[in-house]
C-alpha cells in the first residue's frame, strides 16, 4: 500500500474529498451553501489532516533514529 | 503498562508523571474526537438555522470560536508548564510546554484563516487592524518566535529554560496586547457568551457552539497527546546521542 | 475611545520619534550581551557577590541611557523639520510618556537580549522575538506622544482637554506594562543567565 503515501495520490485524494464535501453541502442543504463557508471548513479539515500526518511522520522518524542509535550503542 | 482507560482521558494526561510509553493506546480518544467532529458538522450544516443578519456565512463562527478558545487555552498551558519547569526542572514539563505551543500555533493559524473568510462577506474586507484581529496576530507572532527560538538553541537544558522565559513573558503580555490594541481601535463583534447585556445566541445556536467546542477540544487533546509523545521520543533520542557521544 | 482628530502632523512626529527609538533599541540591546558572550566576561560578572538582578538593572540602565540619548537627538530634529507650534511645551508634556515608554521597552529589550544571546543567529532572533512582545508599549507610546503633541499645539480648549484625557489613558497602559515587565524581568533573569 506504499503508493497511498505518494504526494500526487494524497493531493488527488484531498481534492476529491474537498469537492465531495462541497457537493454534499450543496446537495444536502442548498440554502446553507456559500463558497467562503465551504472554503473555511474544507481548509480547516485539510489542515487537520496534514498536521496529523506530519505528527505521525515525525514520530516515525524519531523512532527510527532511536532504534538505530540503540543498535549502535549495543555494539 | 498501566490500565488503558485512565490514559485516554485529558485529566490523566495533565496530571501524569509523563513518560514516552504512556498514552500508547489512544484509540478511544481518537474515536471520540472523530465522532464528535462528525456530529458537530451535521449540527452546523444540517440542523442549525441560518442567522438572520449575516446569513449562512455565520456558520464559520461555530468552528472559528472554538479554535480561538482552544488556542488561548493551549497558550495558557504553555505558561503553566513553563512556570512548572522553572520551579521543578522536569523534562516532561518542557515537553508539555512545547507541545502546547505548537498545537496552539496550529489552532491560532486556523483562527487567522477562518476569520478573514467570515469577514470578507460580512465586513466587506478580509482583514482590518481591529483589536481582536491584531492581538490574535501578535499572539501568533509571539508563539511563532517561541518555536523559532527553540530551533536555534542546541543544549536541551538551555533550550527549555530560555523558551520557558519566553512562554511566561509572552503570556503575561497577552492582556496588555489586548487592552492596548482595544483602546486603539475595535470593530470585532463582542463576545456572544457572557458578553454583557444585549449579547446572546439562540439556544439552538448556543448548543451547536458548545458541541463544536467539545469536538475541537477533544481533537486538541488528540493532537497534544501525539505531539507530546513525539517530544518525549525526541528527548529520549537526545539522551541516546549523549550516551553515544560519551 | 479612539479620538477622531488623529492623522495630522502629531501622528507623523510621534511615529517618527518612536521608529527611531525602536530601531536604536533593537540595534543597541543586542550589543549589551553580545560582546560579553563572545569573550565570556558575563560569567565573571555573574560570579561577583551580590544579587544577580543587579546585572539586569545595570544593563537596563545602560540601554535606557542609550535610548534617552537617541530621543535627545531626535526630538529637536523633529521640531526643526516639522515646525510644530509650541514645540518646547509639547516636549515638556510628553516627558512622562517618553520616560515610561522607553523604560518598558528597555526592560523588555534587555531581558530578550539576555535570552537571545544564548542562541546562534541572535541578531536576527532578537527583533523577531522582541517586536511582537513590545507591541503594547510601542502602541501606547506612539499614541500617548501624539496626544501630548496635539494637546500642546491645538488652539481649541475642547480638543486639548480630550487629548489630555486620552494621554492619561495611555499613561495608565504604560504604567501597567512597566510594572508587569519589570516584575517578570526580575523573576526571569536569574534562570536565563544561570549556567
The secondary-structure class of chain A comes to mainly alpha
Instruction: Give the helix/strand class of chain C.
Output: mainly alpha
Total number of distinct structural domains of chain A:
1
The 3D shape of chain A can be described as elongated
Commentary on this structure:
The complex is a heterotrimer of chains A (75), B (246) and C (195). With 75 residues, chain A is mainly α. Chain A is 83% helix and 0% strand. Chain A contains two helices and no strands. The longest helix of chain A is centred in the last third of the chain and has 40 residues, at 35-74. Chain A starts with 6 loop residues before the first helix and ends with a helix. With 246 residues, chain B is mainly alpha-helical. In chain B, helix 5 (91-123) runs antiparallel to helix 8. Classes of the chains: A mainly alpha (75), B mainly alpha (246), C mainly alpha (195). The A-B interface holds A 25, 28-29, 31-34, 36-37, 39-41, 43-44, 47-48, 51-52, 55-56, 58-59, 62-63, 65-66, 69-70, 72-73 and B 41, 44-46, 50, 55-57, 59-60, 63-64, 67, 106, 109-110, 113-114, 117-118, 120-121, 219, 223, 226-227, 229-230, 233-234, 236-237, 240-241, 243-244.
Annotate the secondary structure layout:
The complex is a heterotrimer of chains A (75), B (246) and C (195).
Chain A: H1 7-28, H2 35-74
Chain B: H1 4-7, H2 10-15, H3 27-47, H4 61-88, H5 91-123, H6 131-151, H7 156-184, H8 203-245
Chain C: H1 9-38, H2 41-47, H3 53-82, H4 87-93, H5 95-116, H6 122-133, H7 135-153, H8 157-193
